[in-house]
Design a protein that fits this description.
- The structure is a homodimer of 153-residue chains.
- Chain A has 153 residues and is mainly alpha-helical.
- The first copy, chain A, has 2 domains: 65 residues, Multidrug-efflux Transporter Regulator, Chain: A, Domain 2 (Orthogonal Bundle); 65 residues.
- Helix content of chain A is 59%, strand content 6%.
- In chain A, a hairpin with a 2-residue loop joins strand 2 and strand 3.
- Chain A is elongated, with a radius of gyration of 20 Å.
- The C terminus of chain A is likely disordered.
- At the A-B interface, helix 3, helix 5, helix 6 and helix 7 of A face helix 3, helix 5, helix 6 and helix 7 of B.
- Chain B binds a DNA duplex (30 and 30 nucleotides) through helix 2.
DNA sequence: GCTTGACCTCAAGTTGACTTGAAGTGGCAG
DNA sequence: CTGCCACTTCAAGTCAACTTGAGGTCAAGC
């Protein structure tokens, strides 16, 4: 199993070396050795990076992701928590789908003002309904964080 | 149509007054009048805020969202762009679904190391396949932004 | 053996999205 | 008329997630 140095990992993952060092510092990934000064990564890290990218895309902070995948990059948290996360993702997926449908609708709809188009209002409402209460509770609880970078970048 | 002052909007939307002012400053919403010094918002703004929340949840930056919904909070951009956005959302939804499935799988799977579980690997791979090329191109193009906060907060 | 270039560390800077604090304003209840 | 209190502005602070820059290391090719 040959090792990769940081430039190689960067090239294959599309993540800059500086970010990779930052991730290592943050405990999200770890290099398995050094060649001189140079970090050597196992190819495994590419999979971990994919997981990290997925997590970021899902709106989790690096800190949360770090907590999600323990030491070796494999998830090591209570099943219950995992299921809760999955449920949250379901909610988020529904919202995104609503936004997507809204955009598609707007792209087609010839109405002069969307605010008056019933289809538009219904679409927007859909997003709010599901989990509205839960969302509010979460808001009150989490005062002051959850910036959630969207990634995809 | 009665107007709301900022505290009222904050209470109904769950967004702090300071953030609302910030959004106004950024051109995402606008107050329709002043009562003394106090901003007065049309109830319409609540719908706009919902759209903004959806956009944030979808991973768009406030700047992007501002570009998405013009002046009065209604989308005013080329249909083609809207459709492209919708397609991007589709991709993102697929990724989130993959992450969700991965989490659910991990919550159930009794394998000692997930990295060795074929189901796990397949799930993770799914996310990467679709749009890998497109993603890379975007990366090269957008150097240096797209931090994407996740919101949902 | 010398250069080169990809790596290293560490501190400081950047960006986006807000929040916080100080100092002021003004409508309205008493 | 007097307070009060929710609002106002503006500057500065904060936090996450990186990036940038200065100054240094070292293995490999010439």
């Amino acid at each position: 199993m040959k090792l990769l140095d940081i430039g190689e990992v960067a090239a294959r993952s599309g993540i800059k070396p500086s970010a990779l060092r930052y991730y290592e510092e943050a405990g999200l990934i770890c290099s398995v050795a050094r060649h001189g000064l140079r970090r050597q990564f196992s190819p495994e890290v590419l999979l971990q990076l994919k997981l990290i990218a997925m997590g970021k895309s899902a709106g989790f902070s690096l800190h949360e992701i770090a907590g999600m995948f323990g030491r070796n990059g494999l998830p090591q948290i209570p099943r219950k928590t995992l299921r809760k996360r999955a449920d949250e993702l379901d909610r988020q997926i529904r919202e995104l789908a609503a936004l997507r449908d809204t955009l598609r609708h707007v792209a087609e709809c010839p109405a002069p003002s969307h605010m008056e188009c019933p289809t538009f209002r219904r679409l927007v409402d859909v997003a709010g309904k599901r989990g509205g209460r839960a969302r509010k509770a979460e808001l009150l609880k989490k005062r002051g964080q959850r910036r959630r970078p969207l990634t995809a970048a």
